[in-house]
Design a protein that fits this description.
Layout: H1 2-14, H2 36-48, H3 51-58, H4 70-99, E1 105-107, E2 110-112, H5 127-130, E3 133-135, E4 156-161, H6 165-182, E5 185-187, E6 190-191, H7 203-206, H8 209-215, E7 222-223, H9 233-238, E8 243-244, H10 253-267, E9 269-272, H11 286-299, H12 304-318, E10 328-331, H13 336-342, H14 350-363, H15 365-368, H16 374-383, H17 391-401, E11 409-412, H18 419-429, E12 433-434, H19 436-439, H20 442-446, H21 452-464, E13 468-471, H22 476-487, E14 493-495, H23 499-506, H24 513-523, H25 545-548, E15 549-551
Parallel strand pairs: 4-5, 4-6, 4-9, 5-7, 8-9, 10-11, 10-13, 11-12, 13-14
Antiparallel strand pairs: 1-2, 3-15
Helix pairs in contact: 6-11, 12-21, 17-18
Length: 552
């Protein structure tokens, strides 16, 4: 419009009198500008005219007038093109926004998530995050997952699943995947006694063997025991001639094909040990990672009695107030062994610190040395967020997040270092803390005390079923819980505290409560088990999204 006025002004300067101009040269000039009465009549008629008539006066391209300035044509065409382009871009953006799934992406060390309109909730993730992805590990690719005939097996593999319950679980998943890679038959894994747990649980004492074998029958051939034709079973358990050693951590699939498969073909039966984290994630086929998810989330089921007891405990947690209530599960890793192994410094008396120094010197003499470097090491580890959170620190973080004093909290933990004195700050701020020993009778738990891993399985399941799960330190238990809750649809909150940032806040004597609350809330908005983009060398057990989930 400005250009039209500019064009008109140029015409005015070129003509001595506006009355002598061609009346049709501008659609904005009245028919008789000298007649005051006519102007009023014209104004009244304009008010009575329909919009389309006014549109003609503004956009002469659509007018019935026989002559319209070529300059106006060009401007109108440019306007139309601009409107079309803007409309196309806007519609595309809207459609992309509607169709794109909810996905958080890494920007350096910051995780950026899509914005949502709904207000934040203490007890669940945003609705849009729970409707974008669905589990699809059960989907098999034709050709890759087909099981060859029994007489075409390349041999048998036998593994020792070491460590605690969750480390053993990961080893079992990897064993199935390795058997698939080499087209070998898997002998039911042996759960090796752990030096810390001192537990001799067998596979069938904790997992449903029939379901395990039946579920995976189309993927891998699994047998319960060493074949009868192999007479010297002790050789498989002890002899180095029957053992494949020196498998590197996170080995690619090709390593097994090139280095392990020839020995299995030669010997027919071989043991693989050690077998902790001996298979990589992004150096194997996606179908192999999907198979590991099938094992973890579908094939490995605890015995029915363990599942039933866990359901009872979860139900009791949800009805502790007399009516239905949500509950939080807190995995508190502050046992003496964990505190000692961390080599971090914690609040305590001189006597406590001296006793802990002696304990570390005895258990880890090579790391302890003469102890002179430990103070600097402790400061560095705390700054990097590699120290377990103390019970009191957990209480302050949860309160800053907005969880009220009445929150029902299930605590999954071993014996806390420092006992009741160490737990006092947490219990004072959240008095509704309970453990499985307080939820169940002694008689109910007696049947599970024969195996430490059975009690650990109860904790695992009650945490898995909780509305909010909070970890305080890394480890297989926490990452398997977070991964499983993500696989279930990202609805359940799984809080992973930023221990590095929290250490700075706790160490700042000038930080008030209001800025501390703001730091905690803003930092942890994206640390709740949301759909997260995977990256090279990602941990499949904590984030199964790429290989094991599909767009909903």
């Amino acid at each position: 419009m400005a250009e039209l006025r500019h064009s008109s002004s140029i015409g005015s300067r070129a003509t001595p009198s506006p009355l002598k101009r061609d009346e049709d040269s501008s659609p904005f000039l009245p028919d008789n500008p000298t007649d005051h009465h006519d102007r009023h009549s014209s104004r009244d008629r304009d008010r009575d005219r329909p919009f389309w008539s006014n549109f003609h006066s503004i956009c002469p391209f659509f007018s019935d007038e026989p002559r319209v300035s070529p300059h106006n044509y060009k401007i109108l065409i440019l306007w139309i093109l601009l409107v079309i382009i803007v409309g196309f871009v806007s519609i595309s953006a809207i459609l992309n926004g509607l169709n794109s799934p909810y996905l958080c992406r890494k920007d350096g060390i910051v995780l950026r998530c899509p914005r949502v309109k709904e207000p934040p909730s203490l007890w669940g993730n945003p609705f849009s995050a729970t409707t974008s992805w669905k589990p699809c590990a059960e989907r098999r690719n034709a050709g890759i997952s087909e099981l060859p005939p029994e007489n075409e097996t390349n041999g048998y593999i036998f593994i020792h699943a070491e460590g605690g319950l969750n480390q053993q679980r990961i080893a079992i998943c990897n064993a199935v995947a390795v058997a698939k890679i080499m087209n070998a038959t898997l002998i039911l894994p042996l759960l090796k006694q752990d030096q810390i747990w001192k537990d001799q649980t067998k596979f069938e004492d904790i997992f449903d063997v029939d379901h395990f074998i039946e579920y995976l029958k189309d993927d891998v051939r699994i047998v319960r025991d060493i074949p009868e034709w192999f007479t010297d079973k002790s050789e498989l358990l002890t002899s180095i001639r029957r053992t494949v050693k020196n498998i590197p951590k996170y080995a690619p699939a090709q390593f097994y094909i090139d280095n392990v498969l020839p020995r299995i073909k030669e010997k027919k039966i071989m043991a693989l040990k050690p077998f902790v984290d001996r298979l990589g994630y992004d150096n194997v086929l996606p179908e192999i990672n999907r198979l590991r998810c099938r094992v973890n989330y579908h094939a490995l089921k605890f015995l029915p009695e363990i599942e039933q007891m866990a359901d009872q405990l979860a139900s009791r947690m949800r009805n502790r107030t007399g009516s239905s209530n949500p509950y939080m599960a807190l995995h508190l890793r502050f046992e003496k062994g964990m505190v000692g192994l961390s080599f971090c410094d914690f609040v305590g008396t001189r006597e406590e610190k001296a006793l802990m120094a002696e304990y570390r010197k005895k258990e880890w003499p090579r790391r302890y040395k003469n102890g002179s470097h430990l103070w600097q090491l402790a400061l560095q580890k705390r700054k990097e967020g590699r120290c377990p959170l103390e019970p009191g620190e957990v209480a302050v973080i949860l309160r800053a997040m907005g969880y009220p004093k009445e929150t029902q909290i299930y605590v999954a933990s071993g014996k806390v270092y420092g006992g009741q004195n160490r737990m006092a700050p947490l219990r004072n701020m959240f008095p509704n803390l309970v453990t499985k020993e307080e939820l169940a009778t002694r008689e109910e738990l007696d049947g599970f005390r024969k195996h430490v891993t059975s009690l650990a399985a109860l904790d695992f399941l009650v945490c898995l079923k909780s509305d909010v799960f909070v970890m305080t330190h890394g480890g297989n238990f926490a990452k398997l819980i977070i991964g499983a809750r993500r696989y279930m649809g990202h609805q359940l909150k799984s809080i992973k505290p930023d221990k590095g940032l929290m250490s700075k806040s706790f160490g700042d004597p000038y930080m008030g409560w209001a800025p501390f609350v703001e730091d905690v809330v803003v930092t942890h908005q994206t640390r709740t088990g949301l759909p997260e983009e995977t990256f090279p060398n990602y941990d499949l057990w904590e984030n199964p999204l790429t290989p094991c989930m599909c767009r909903a």
